[in-house]
């Protein structure tokens, strides 16, 4: 069971210094800092970053990918990757409206 430790307000920016302080060693995905919606904690593990899938897909579409390309990139290169013990966690909010 994961607990969201910190919920990012829409107008608040998470700085690398804050992340290092609260979730030292957490994996940060390049180019998706603005898609971080929180920091999670779980008994027996280090804190990890929580990313919004909806925001990640929207960002990739805004950067020039089609929605299908963005979903494929997410599936194979992000969710399909293991980046370390503090691998990010992904909030599957893409299909929700």
Give descriptors for this structure.
97 residues; four-stranded mixed sheet; 3 helices; 20% strand; globular
Tell me about this structure.
Helix content is 30%, strand content 20%. A four-stranded mixed β-sheet has the order 1-2-3-4. The protein has helices spanning 16-22, 53-62, 67-78, and strands spanning 3-7, 36-41, 48-52, 89-91. The chain has one domain. The mean pLDDT is 85. Helix 2 (53-62) crosses helix 3. It has 97 residues and is an alpha+beta fold.
Succession of helices and strands:
EHEEHHE
Shape: globular
| Distance, first to last CA | 24 Å
The major pleated sheet works out as:
4 strands, mixed
Strand residue percentage? 15-25%
Q: Give the total of domains.
A: 1
Low-confidence blocks of residues: none
Tell me the number of helical segments per DSSP (H or I, 4 or more residues long): 3
Helix content: 25-40%
From the alpha carbons, calculate the radius of gyration and give it in angstroms.
13 Å
Adjacency order of strands in the biggest sheet: 1-2-3-4
Instruction: Provide the structure class.
Output: alpha+beta
Number of strands: 4
Mean pLDDT, to the nearest integer, reads: 85
SSE topology:
Layout: E1 3-7, H1 16-22, E2 36-41, E3 48-52, H2 53-62, H3 67-78, E4 89-91
Short description:
By secondary structure, the protein is of the alpha+beta class. The chain contains 3 helices and 4 strands.
